[in-house]
Specification:
Layout lengths: L20 H6 L2 E4 L4 E4 L4 E6 L2 E9 L5 E5 L3 E12 L2 E9 L2 E8 L10
Antiparallel strand pairs: 1-2, 1-8, 2-3, 3-4, 4-5, 5-6, 6-7, 7-8
């Protein structure tokens, strides 16, 4: 699943450049290793689903070019975002903040029909 990103040439664990962050996040829904899923919409909304429970939040690229998320009422965090490349294709993203890290693989369908208010 790399059609939306087919014009990018990246290597595994390479940092996602700030201009590419929106495309990287909205290319498709993400499935994390723990079974949680997350979808990112182009309008900055996101939904994280863990154990069947959805949580609505927002995402953005900050002034320093980092991916950040906001979860009401007051949780805000920024992450280092790196590509996950498998078998020569972009397969997902690696998220890291301090000692926390997560790997998410792209899933279909994409976020256009997954992020709803």
């Amino acid at each position: 699943m790399n059609e939306p990103l087919s014009d990018l040439t990246v290597i595994d664990a390479e940092e996602v450049r700030a201009p590419d962050i929106p495309r990287a996040l909205t290319a498709a829904s993400i499935l994390y290793e723990d079974g949680a899923t997350q979808a990112f919409a182009e309008d900055g909304k996101t939904v994280y689903v863990e154990n069947g429970r959805p949580t609505l939040g927002e995402w953005y690229v900050d002034a320093e070019g980092q991916f950040c998320s906001f979860w009401p009422p007051d949780y805000r965090a920024c992450y280092e975002l790196r590509w996950l490349v498998e078998d020569g294709r972009i397969a997902g993203l690696r998220f890291r903040r301090g000692s926390y890290s997560a790997i998410g693989r792209y899933q279909l369908p994409g976020p256009d029909n997954a992020v709803k208010e």
